[in-house]
Design brief:
The protein has 161 residues and is mainly α. It has one domain. Helix content is 79%, strand content 0%. Helix 1 runs antiparallel to helix 2, helix 1 runs parallel beside helix 3 and helix 2 packs antiparallel against helix 3. The longest helix is centred in the N-terminal third of the chain and has 53 residues. This is Transmembrane protein. Keywords: Membrane, Transmembrane, Transmembrane helix.
């Protein structure tokens, strides 16, 4: 038996193997987080397109369908509100993904610092957010929601009298 605090060669080998498996897992998670942002954008685009199409269809057809203008306006506002909720949900998922990515990258740096040496992998800097595609996905979602509300407020709703 060895005294407490001593490291046996077998224990060091097991520790390195475990660290390697953890490192592989972290890299898989980082990849999954990166792919999820694309999935979330596709989800938003699909739902926003469907809801905006519904709002435009309601605007175009409400007279033909004998729907009162006030009801049609309420429907358009409801569809835009649903689009905004979908956008907020998508943005929340993307922000959580970014936070997870930062956590995984820091854990990756911890492992490489311990096993290879300090500074092998540079830690992520949140100040580099202008280089992250998630930033531009969030901007796209924000701009598209603002554009939908502006178009509805300036063109659709005033014409539904």
């Amino acid at each position: 038996m060895t005294a407490t605090g001593e490291t046996r060669p077998e224990a060091a080998s097991v520790r390195r193997e475990f660290a390697l498996e953890r490192y592989r897992y972290i890299l898989q998670q980082i990849n999954a987080v990166n792919e999820n942002a694309h999935r979330f954008l596709a989800l938003y685009q699909t739902l926003a397109t469907a809801l905006a199409t519904g709002a435009v269809a309601l605007f175009v057809g409400y007279r033909k369908w004998d729907i009162p203008a006030a009801t049609a306006r309420g429907g358009v506002l409801g569809l835009l509100t649903l689009t905004t909720v979908v956008a907020a949900f998508t943005c929340t998922l993307i922000v959580v993904g970014v936070l997870s990515w930062l956590d995984y990258r820091n854990e990756e740096c911890d492992i490489t610092d311990e096993l290879i040496g300090p500074g092998f992998r540079e830690r992520p800097r949140p100040g580099n957010f202008v280089r992250w595609y998630e930033t531009y996905v969030l901007l796209f979602i924000l701009v598209s929601v603002i554009a939908m509300w502006l178009l509805a407020g300036l063109l659709l709703l005033p014409a539904m009298r």
